[in-house]
TrEMBL record, chains A, B:
This is Xylan alpha-1,2-glucuronidase. It comes from Niastella populi. Residues 25-145 form the Alpha glucuronidase N-terminal domain. One of its GO terms (molecular function) is alpha-glucuronidase activity. Keywords: Carbohydrate metabolism, Glycosidase, Hydrolase, Polysaccharide degradation, Xylan degradation. Coiled coil: none annotated. The active site is at E306 (proton donor), D380 (proton acceptor), E408 (proton acceptor). One of its GO terms (cellular component) is extracellular region. Belongs to the glycosyl hydrolase 67 family. Residues 469-694 form the Glycosyl hydrolase family 67 C-terminal domain. SUPFAM superfamilies: (Trans)glycosidases (SSF51445), beta-N-acetylhexosaminidase-like domain (SSF55545). GO terms for biological process: xylan catabolic process. Residues 149-468 form the Glycosyl hydrolase family 67 catalytic domain.
Amino acid sequence: MKKWIVVIIGIMLFNSVSAENGYDLWLRYKVTDNAVLLQQYRQQITGINCTCSDGKLLAAQQELQQGLTGLLGKNVPLQKLVTNGTVMLGTPAQLPFIKKSVGENTLTGLGDEGYLIRSIRHEGKNIILITGNKEAGILYGAFHFLRLLQMQQPIAQLNISSTPAIKLRLLNHWDNLNRTVERGYAGGSIWDWQRLPGYRDQRYYDYARANASIGINGTVLTNVNANAMILTEPWLQKVAALAAIFRQYNIKVYLTARFSAPVEIGNLKTADPLNEEVRKWWKDKADEIYSIIPDFGGFLVKANSEGQPGPQNYQRTHADGANMLADAVAPHNGIVMWRAFVYSNESPEDRFKQAYNEFKPLDGQFRKNVLVQVKNGPIDFQPREPFHPLFGAMPQTPLMMEYQLTQEYMGFATHLVYEAPLFTEVLNADTHTKPNGSTVAQIIDGTADGHSLSGMAGVSNIGSDINWTGHPFGQANWYTLGRLAWNPALTPAQIANEWIRQTFTNKKAFVDTVQQMMLASREIMVNYMTPLGLHHIMGYGHHYGPAPWYNKAPRADWNPVYFHRADSTGIGFNRTASGSNALAQYQPAVRRQYENIATCPEELLLWFHHVPWDHKMKSGKTLWEEMCEKYYRGVDSVRWMQRSWSRLKNYIDEERFKQIEQLLGIQEQEAVWWRNACLLYFQTFSGKPIPAKYEKPDRTLEYYMELNFPYAPH
Amino acid sequence: MKKWIVVIIGIMLFNSVSAENGYDLWLRYKVTDNAVLLQQYRQQITGINCTCSDGKLLAAQQELQQGLTGLLGKNVPLQKLVTNGTVMLGTPAQLPFIKKSVGENTLTGLGDEGYLIRSIRHEGKNIILITGNKEAGILYGAFHFLRLLQMQQPIAQLNISSTPAIKLRLLNHWDNLNRTVERGYAGGSIWDWQRLPGYRDQRYYDYARANASIGINGTVLTNVNANAMILTEPWLQKVAALAAIFRQYNIKVYLTARFSAPVEIGNLKTADPLNEEVRKWWKDKADEIYSIIPDFGGFLVKANSEGQPGPQNYQRTHADGANMLADAVAPHNGIVMWRAFVYSNESPEDRFKQAYNEFKPLDGQFRKNVLVQVKNGPIDFQPREPFHPLFGAMPQTPLMMEYQLTQEYMGFATHLVYEAPLFTEVLNADTHTKPNGSTVAQIIDGTADGHSLSGMAGVSNIGSDINWTGHPFGQANWYTLGRLAWNPALTPAQIANEWIRQTFTNKKAFVDTVQQMMLASREIMVNYMTPLGLHHIMGYGHHYGPAPWYNKAPRADWNPVYFHRADSTGIGFNRTASGSNALAQYQPAVRRQYENIATCPEELLLWFHHVPWDHKMKSGKTLWEEMCEKYYRGVDSVRWMQRSWSRLKNYIDEERFKQIEQLLGIQEQEAVWWRNACLLYFQTFSGKPIPAKYEKPDRTLEYYMELNFPYAPH
């Protein structure tokens, strides 16, 4: 007998040394490594009671069983009868005692997706009840309960209720039908279209589990630069196979609609949204889609922007286009998300202003099932942007937030950049469009203007790399999108804390250090890339690395020089009344703050002002000195992250430790590249020296200007 | 204490249920599941003795420790002193006792890569010695030893020696610099060029381990449709990072050389191989490469074929081109692999004949460090081809075999096709170029003509999918390439047996069933795709699915109709003297057999003859009836594979079981598609009915002809 024990211990030990490759994301379900707590959990949780045979409830039960079995390191059985420690799942309709036990008001407040987790006494036993009006809520509750254990929280006296603040919580995949991903830095697309619908990859299930665990309830499978082919029957069958998997995790699929599809796949002569044949074609297409995918979510559309066709090709408005599609899906309860990211090739107008100019006049003209999807800032997912002036400017239209998780302008999948501070900075910005509270969060969640439809989307950073996001910390940005869409009031620190504990370890020294790194990381990137309000000075096309000198793009506003406007007198884009007057698109309270160089936050300074090189900053330094200081501080801070990380070697698995160590190494090199290239270039305008206290750039401006990256992902 | 045991058993059980995703390939190292054998192994293996601190010996020691620890389910320590059961690693130079113990002759016979595994008595202990003249041999020996345990073989009295028959055992990656893979069906490229050299993915190490375990000692990283950029300094630094990882696994890196590189990246006006400036450019480039990668292997070149530039652009021969590159790398002991896969756009000559016509006259003109790389058959990796007539026709030139692992013409990563029977069928073919033995294997391994340089390459089927090859059984084809290149005398059954036991389980019922499926699978595919010598009737461009009707390609020999030549009188390509006379390229003994319709193997019939529809086959059926029979048998056999597989559910993990079950489902559908489309199409020529005993095609020919796959991988 003793021999067997040794054998078993041996096997156990040597199975557990296997490296972690990041595939499991934040759903690792390792045995609780606090012995006291483990003992408690085992007493507090003895089994699962659930009368479920399919759908979301079955998914919840399976996840709970898998998760608890892992976390408790013992079998957690399904129970027909409750005992002390039973985790019980069910809706009030299934379990009539719940209404009495919990109260009708409480249940009403949960809506369709909310949940309740309560320690209660039932049939003389102490049980843990996870309930919700609909099965979806119970699924979310199960994940919440698992998170408590993953974070080693007490579960003795639970009384938790939660409902999502935002209705549509979506990923936008910019994935093409040939399995490439636009702005993808983590390998190819996870959608293996060639082998769908027959081959249902395990990744689809794990993708759905991960999304459900953070409350994401929809996914747009295809690129906004759209391909009409996806709307043809063989492809819809592929989509249906994914939808069938995602359905049990409360995730709806959406597709991008190519506006010219009636011409391209429908053999019509026009795609004019007011043409009856066109309208019928879309109606029929919608009917066909819903016959194949009964719970299809709807369409996301990029129209009349960057070469995409749209209603303006036929002298119609964005509202005409959106409403035609909205009418087609309305009978099936579908919705249309119409992107506000439009700017015209012909117009010489400041690109900052164009979306507002196009869309604000259309407020009130959209159908009830249309949302206008607005990027967080007016240009394009820069390291820092002021909030988009459309927020608050279209009170009759539900505006949906579009964030970019994939780090197109933030170091690809190579730089450690935690995006939550960027996201919440925008959410917390006050648009001043209402007297009593009109933050962007309040616009987005529908409360400011009383919209029941609301949404938040993140452009996915997911690819075929084993760890999903290329950079292990990219997972945190995916995680953030889900959690913030559920509850926009969560702080970056709260979200980081959750993610670190589940993804790595609960050990305090590790959690504290990594949380500090994450919270600082976005400002660090701003400093070494685009401090003081600089923006869009990345390499042309691929956006890899610095190229503030670039001026050869076929349109003015694709050139960095368009955005920074450096000359011998100073630097920055004058968007005050004496310049493009983009500031007029904000409410007076906002505009006044930004248009006055004395009150404009210095972090946004060059977004709005062309500032003399010797302008005195709050620090007492000149603008040029301050710029040098920011760039150098950015690099120094990356080195601080490297030192911090190097101390954490013994807390986690070697594989992920080394991955991040190596990536920080590249980030340091690229931060130096950014700093040197930008300062050497801007110096040609400022004519001032880089202060002697700093390390000298070890390459010339010419060296940096000649670098060339034809195969950078884009 | 008892409680802890329960805890431990619990943890163990619930850690071990984790699904297998295929990432570990045939190197799973699970605990031996035969209790008696496990007990024996534990007594027979007690530790590892190795005086090694780096390089290949360290890799061998690490692999042994990891593998044995897994297989024995206990720690296998490193030992300074030997005990009974020590596994001892070292060269005769390190361990002088070996020469006496083993004998000098035996050691000499091992060469540079061979190894010896012996149970010996040393210092009064029973130990297992793994030795070789060079560290590389010990690395291979270590993997052989691990394989014995993985296959649950006895290890009590070991006396194994092995040396590779072929010197260059290579993978050819058709991977592009933008991370796409030509003819790749398993996701994108595993080479993450964007993040190299700074980020060294764990996959690179596991790729090297897998290759070393089967004896592969070289890898061509880049596509034969080449990009000169890879030869520039920043990219060579990326290559060097891979080379540094692969070096310790005895794997050299090679690159494809774009012939026009001197013009494209060298600013020269010409790439004429006899131009002195061009020759100097390549010499300097080689010197640069070797300064960065001291053990660089050399170049693979596709020239003057399918649009690639080459020496003929300058009215020079393939020998002129190859020799120029050979001279450049010769001082560094580099080699050049020059592909014979050439066919001219202008020539109306039967494509079958063109490589032979171009290359045979050049025999004797190549430098000593040039190999000519010849595809197994004269056309292009078809399900079945006769052996390439160049084999045996260039006795003064080392000819290297090129197989295609990736299933361009064999169902992509969707069809279960074990390629070993295809590979060995060619190896075993007798070219009749020598009186006493001149099989293709003897040509390839250099014995027929006394070449010391020899090579075998496989076009890689590896991609970024978690399981590397898309289809779990694609791994078997990668495995086969390595094992056959080491020992071309291995049979498909032996290789399949090894692979199944290591990849899945040693359980007899499983091994027997799967081995049967694998051995039958290639002929099954031939039957439902291209029976009786049909070839190259796949979809245009992507080669997905059947398109025997296709006749719109810009060159004749890209059209299926060029190859099958069906008309009302019959079907097949007359390559006898009354036709293209390609048969004249074979030796008389071969030619005579093939040119006589009575002696031509029926499996090659339509390769060489245009055969009347009512030609009487050996079965007594007409050609048309036989063709029907083959196509229907192909589909039936896929269904047999499905039934066979369905019985194996309880033998392996659910994840891989389901993957294969689903893929067989698609294979069945696509086999029906092939059968119906081809028979309905050929029926338009034969004018005969499909015999009534068969299930009727449920679609029309028009339906199949209208199918269209613009996004199929290609």
